Amino acid sequence: MFLAGALWELIIKYFWRHLPVYVALMLLFMTGLGFGALATQKLSPVQKEDLSSYISAVYASLAENNQEREDRAQVFYQSLKDNVIKTAGLLFLLGLTVIGAPLILAVVFVRGFVLGFTVGFLVQDAMVKGLVLSTTCVLPHNILMVPALLLGAGGALSFAGSAFRTLVGRSRESVQGQLATTTLLALCSGLLFLVAALVETYITPILVQLGRGFLT
User: Fold this and answer.
1) Does any domain span residue 115?
2) Which of 31, 71, 127, 130 makes an SS bond possible with 122, Cβ 3.0 to 4.6 Å?
3) What is the pTM of this model?
4) Structural domain boundaries enclosing 208
5) How many whole angstroms separate alpha carbon 147 and alpha carbon 201?
6) Residue 13: inside a domain, yes or no?
7) Distance of alpha carbon 28 from alpha carbon 31, whole angstroms
8) Does a structural domain hold residue 2?
9) Is the residue at 8 inside a domain?
10) Count of domains forming the chain
11) Cβ contacts of 163 within 8 Å, gap of 6 or more
């Protein structure tokens, strides 16, 4: 009980200490969301039609009751590769390099842009149906993916900043301690991405079916 309380106190102190970093990342992500939503206004009619056809096909595939286990496993492993390895792993490595810190900001912005574009297009293209589709198909796993992204990005940026200050002699903070913290945050980020992949693979199709029933 004492250890749990002490650990929780350390977590609170860490996030309070690095609050400006996480606030900046949240603002950057929200900026990406806004730009992504605005970008849907620039699509040509042909591009909108192509995207509508693609989204309809994906929606129909997700709503299938008899989706093969092999297909679901492929979706799960693809999500793992894209999020755990390519996102959480990339953020961690960029933080370790220190000079790759600006790319961490780019990753956060791009992920926000993609999410904003997706939701914006769905709502603009199909109104109520698009809103239902966004809620059932996009929102569930992104509730976990967004915190996972910000957690990993914040840890990587904090390490890069601490390491840089130590290298230039402006801080005597232990780089080893910060590395341990960043590694733990990267693992937590990867775990959240893993749970999000499970939700996307096994829960989202059920929610899509419920949403389809609501619209019919």
Assistant:
1) yes
2) 130
3) 0.86
4) 20-56+87-215
5) 19
6) no
7) 5
8) no
9) no
10) 1
11) 98, 175, 178
